[in-house]
Amino acid sequence: MAVSSGNGRLSWLLCSVVAAGFLAHGSVAFATPPQTDGNDLSVLRRIQAAAQKLDYSGTYTYQQGSFMQSSRLTHVVDATGEHERLEILDGVPTEFIRHNEEVQCLIPDKQLIVIEDRPTRERFPGVLLGSVEALGDRYRLSIKPEPQRVADRDCQAISLTPVDSERYGYLLCADVESGLLLKAKTVDANGEVLEQLAFTSLTVGVGVDRSKLKSKWSTKDWTVQRTKVTPIDLASMGWNVGEVSGFRKVTEVKRSMGERSDVKQLVMADGMAAISVFIEPATDSHPQASGSMSRGAIHVFGRRYGEYWLTVLGEAPPETVRKVADSIVHQPASK
């Protein structure tokens, strides 16, 4: 059942979430992987530092069931900060070009560029979201001593097992030489793989071609829409979103783009996974009944609430996403 006003609306939400790129300084080039135990999160901090501080370029695949999609990623760091270009190679052409917090989402078939400033990043090969310290209370971390092999590179296998049913587990493999995440699997309570991302080819450091940061599309005459993102306090507006064990609020913002109605968004994360709540005025194009959909580890639930339409999207079990949606309450301030 549809959860929003057609594929266009859901695509905008997904583009918004992916472009966020929701997902430690110093040296990240260890000759051997650091030693750790179940409560030592340094290995995850090393992965995150590598994703942010190193130059790298490669192709990776996303797989969920029989669905597979390839993307090409180039990441370069210079005196002005991070530069990144992500190309979706299969299906509808889409590109994401990022310089630090500014993200451009290029949609060639609509000749459209959506620009937005994003303070946080979550995209592969990054791994951490929100507060890292809480991870030790929600996941058991373990490392296999024997190195594995991904994209012709040795990598260290890491498992994150959830302590409850509110979240999924993760199987990671990080490059022994650089610390960069090479492969990530999301697994359910039965150990079944829901989705996975993995590099199939990769260059790290010297040899990364900076020219790959430039889009192949001529965008001179394209429409440019800049999304205005404004911090807000949902509680002061009468909105209350129930807490989910281990998930903490990361941000609350209002998104405004052209003539489109403002959309309020709350993001909560447990250090590995994020759940987004979108609140917008209900229209005739929204369904009358609640509905859900999913792909891999991503679940979406939408429902009408008075004059509003609520959409909850997250990398969490459907019961957790539904729990968040059902917890949302609005109590308008008395006049």
Describe it.
It holds the Pfam family MucB_RseB_C. This is Siderophore-interacting protein. Belongs to the RseB family. InterPro entries: MucB/RseB_C (IPR033436), MucB/RseB_C_sf (IPR038484), MucB/RseB_N (IPR033434), MucB_RseB (IPR005588). Its main location: periplasm. The chain contains four helices and 22 strands. The model is unreliable at 1-12 and 17-38 (pLDDT under 50). Helices cover 12% and strands 45% of the residues. It is globular. The chain has 335 residues and is mainly beta. The strands form three sheets. Strands 1, 2, 3, 4, 5, 6, 7, 8, 9, 10, 11, 12 and 13 form a 13-stranded mixed β-sheet that branches. The protein has a domain at 227-330: Phosphorylase Kinase, domain 1.
For the record, what CATH class of the domain at 227-330 applies?
Alpha Beta
Q: Give the structural class.
A: mainly beta
Quaternary organisation of the protein chains: single chain
Which shape, going by the Cα principal axes? globular
Question: Architecture of the domain at 227-330, CATH level 2?
Answer: 2-Layer Sandwich
Number of strands: 22
Whole-number mean pLDDT: 86
The name of the CATH topology of the domain at 227-330 is Phosphorylase Kinase, domain 1
Query: Which residues form runs of ≥5 with pLDDT under 50?
Result: 1-12, 17-38
Compute the gyration radius: what is it?
Answer: 20 Å
Outline the biggest β-sheet.
Answer: 13 strands, mixed
The number of helices is: 4
CATH superfamily of the domain at 227-330: MucB/RseB, C-terminal domain
Report helical residue fraction: 10-25%
SSE sequence, one letter per element: HHEEEEEEHEEEEEEEEEEEEEEEHE
